[in-house]
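Note to self: the last two entries modelled the partners one at a time, which told us nothing about the interface. This time every component goes in together.
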Amino acid sequence: MTGKRVIALCGGIGGAKLARGLYELLGLDLTVIVNTGDDFEHLGLMISPDVDTVLYTLADLNDPERGWGRAGETWNFMASLAQVGGETWFQLGDRDLALHVERTRRLQEGQSLTRIVHDVARRFGISAEVLPMSDDPVRTIVATDAGPLPFQRYFVRSRCVPVVRAITFEGADAARASPELRAAFKQPGLAAIVICPSNPYLSVDPILAVPEMRELLQETEAPVVAVSPIIGGAAVKGPTTKIMAELNIQATNASIARHYMEIIDGLVIDSGDGSEAASLPVASLTTATLMNSLDDRVTLARDVLDFARELASSPQRVRPRYSAG
Amino acid sequence: MTGKRVIALCGGIGGAKLARGLYELLGLDLTVIVNTGDDFEHLGLMISPDVDTVLYTLADLNDPERGWGRAGETWNFMASLAQVGGETWFQLGDRDLALHVERTRRLQEGQSLTRIVHDVARRFGISAEVLPMSDDPVRTIVATDAGPLPFQRYFVRSRCVPVVRAITFEGADAARASPELRAAFKQPGLAAIVICPSNPYLSVDPILAVPEMRELLQETEAPVVAVSPIIGGAAVKGPTTKIMAELNIQATNASIARHYMEIIDGLVIDSGDGSEAASLPVASLTTATLMNSLDDRVTLARDVLDFARELASSPQRVRPRYSAG
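The predicted structure of the combined assembly is written out below.
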């Protein structure tokens, strides 16, 4: 592994934490590919929750307590929206709102989401490249016992209460990778691909559902490493284990490894789950994966990159693409 | 004059002050017809500055210092918009923004501006009827020495600096009065029509440029009274006298009276301008027209209504419609 460029696949809050750690180490050698399956139109605005969480987190503009949205946020827009009878189930902070309004305006002018996100990242002083997984619409639909729900209706409005039967990604089959995304995989010096500890079913699967994304991952010679979002049989945040139970999947690292089996060369699991390492169907690294501070994030990022370097030089590469290589 | 219903024609800040005074006296017997020639699309949002100023002023939600926008306003959206590279020449407060977002969403759903404004007025607890002058788009264009400028570009972005050559109202010829607006004129018990002391050329003329509006004013048997925006040869606020000079019109109450000649039965001028009364081509009332406090507004409103009552019972009605009546 001579190059130092790294691609991270990322959903929202949990994944963005590791992306922040990687960014600290890699700067402009990092490309973050972000889930857009959660994107939706609300109040006439085009909202890209995961992309924005990544942008705010990389720029240190995020609210560290709440996890989503911006630090120092105010909520006068929402209070006033309630007053004029608007829909208030999705919280939009006053500062956050500017990004939605400007994105919507530019999309309506015909600009690509990729270009808009690129410009905003530069304005936020982010040297890493942040790329939406596709400029074509992909919409995550959660089939539940209460019927099919668009992602934000399930996640925010229904607070993940309905029982999940299946998750589908509307439009994914027809979605293309952007030229910028293809270029990120094709440029020389790609050292590793990191799947951040986002929810595999809700946040990473939509990325993998874009056919070209899966092909690019199959074709790359760089090692692919996932960081498990499961610690001690539970997720740090969000409905990961609830969904796993509802889909009849055990909340174990082995389940995560099997889920990513065709894609990854190795899985990173938490120190407390060391006893699970032997049962995993892929190579693994056991280290502290809980990320509270920036130090935690950087330390985990360094461990993940070291692990990837090790895998790259290992003779035991098992994925099909390597046997053809 | 047996009825007590009053219609006020109104632009933004100056006019809204008198509308507020009339509202204090009349409550649900007041209908305010508001200029929409200043309306424009900005950042993908449909903005109706004069309508909003009237709504905020009647609901006591307006900022009394600044004149426009809401009290207790915050500006985090604008700060953030600057950060992401959006256009910032038109100030949109966080609270104010909710009305623009909700109006835009409802207009895009096909709802009329009249209905939206009606609902917002009710939510704000306003018992008076607030009606846009038309649901059809009318756009005030200011022809200047710097070329033609849409109203907000002239008024806000260029700060009224360019020299005005002419003012036109794009779309006015084809604009219809709404059924609600026609009904306001046709309901029994209309006691008076008041033209508020808004800028006659920029804020009242667009209302009068809607052909049906002019017809309704010609046909009504209620007295029409205008309050002059000129006090001591100057306007309280805004570019009225600058524009008058550029259009080669003397900044006098006589000029205002002549401007409204075909429409009004009487003009209300300020106490300090009493010496001009004799030179006016219409009946006049001289009283304090400067409105600082709510008391000032109510007092002026009462004077205006008394004056209208006097005119209604006077044998000296001079407008053409009366000779036919």
